[in-house]
Specification:
The chain is α+β, with helices and mostly antiparallel strands. It is 35% helix and 20% strand. It contains three helices and six strands.
């Protein structure tokens, strides 16, 4: 069992997509990706650095031998929609939060939308008596 998830990354000129795999954080891969993109904003135009920043955020310092992996060209185990990151011909970063066959956003637009939605949910939670 597990909560398997992936983040897909297609670097410019690459023939294959890279999949960063987590065994236990599948429900949180979009949140983790948003955090990595925010932290690594100054490296958006450097695919190799940004890829490493995303992986670092995913593993969050965990140096164990299990729980995370890297697949190339094919997805291993997965239980959740796979957010996809890539660069257009002009070098601009894009995000397809629910996979490549869904809506694609410029990275900053996606981050701004996430912040707005997160703020709305937090405000609603504060109003709800639990």
């Amino acid at each position: 069992m597990g909560e398997r998830g992936n983040i897909a990354i297609t670097q410019p000129g690459a023939k294959d997509t890279l999949y960063l795999h987590t065994h236990w954080k599948g429900p949180r891969v979009r949140e983790i990706l948003a955090s990595a993109l925010t932290k690594g904003k100054e490296r958006w135009s450097h695919p190799s650095y940004l890829t490493r920043i995303i992986f670092d955020e995913l593993v969050n310092g965990d140096r164990s031998l299990t729980g995370y992996g890297i697949d190339v060209g094919q997805i291993g185990d997965n239980d959740y929609p796979i957010p996809h990151v890539g660069w257009d011909e002009d070098g601009h970063l894009w995000v397809a939060p629910d996979g490549i066959d869904t809506a694609v956003y410029e990275a900053q637009v996606w981050l701004d939308r996430r912040k707005a939605v997160d703020a709305t949910f937090r405000e609603a939670e504060l109003k709800e008596p639990f």
